[in-house]
Amino acid sequence: xxxxxxxxxxxxxxxxxxxxxxxxxxxxxxxxxxxxxxxxxxxxxxxxxxxxxxxxxxxxxxxxxxxxxxxxxxxxxxxxxxxxxxxxxxxxxxxxxxxxxxxxxxxxxxxxxxxxxxxxxxxxxxxxxxxxxxxxxxxxxxxxxxxxxxxxxxxxxxxxxxxxxxxxxxxxxxxxxxxxxxxxxxxxxxxxxxxxxxxxxxxxxxxxxxxxxxxxxxxxxxxxxxxxxxxxxxxxxxxxxxxxxxxxxxxxxxxxxxxxxxxxxxxxxxxxxxxxxxxxxxxxxxxxxxxxxxxxxxxxxxxxxxxxxxxxx
Length: 313
Fold this sequence. Notes:
- This protein is of the alpha/beta class.
- 35% of the residues lie in helices and 26% in strands.
- β8 (210-215) and β9 form a beta hairpin.
- α3 crosses α4 (115-128) and α8 packs across α11.
- The mean pLDDT is 87.
């Protein structure tokens, strides 16, 4: 029998820990990111996401645990490991005297590119992140969102196989957020392994292939397990003005509650899956309810995250 080829993770961490004095920033974190995929790292402020990302990028040494970037330990074979990583922090640091093109060219040279190669790469990346018109402008004149795009370009100067993006959508306008989503998916399609964090989970729903949830310095397990645990989802049902959905739902064997901001024409109901939701909608319409909207409350990632947080309380 011929065994199927197993694709090794491009980025992986096992039981990683890091403290700052008496503060345990990361207690136990494990994750894997395969090539050609986008994984979200999700958790509230202060849960240890940025500290974990710094360790994964080889910029901070863990107190315990193991990290491998393209099979290399960043703290044993640092230069080789970091040559595979593109790191985008949540805030771009700039040199006021350098233009956008010069900033990228400088980083390209630092990664060993020849002068002309670094210059050509810089202009190609500025076009890719829609900043070509600012090539000759100093980075200090850029808006917050434009600096985020320059920061992403800077992370790509050496064509890394692993991308670690910390809040890349912060400060971006709606159009730029769509462009970011498309670019991240393009990079994954080209074979990159992408780990991305964001506070706005709805932005990640259409971008990521998998998710790792983190709380109080601990990663909470595979998202697949969380999705099973979150099978009972909250959906919002909205009727036409004057509709009494509360009365209609009270006659059914359903777990439901009033919507906080609505009247009797709105309610929150629990469904087990999409088929169950379709059955409920058919029943309500069949009983004469005039429904104008029916769908999940929040994004799928929000549903899973809230469920996991409730289980840990």
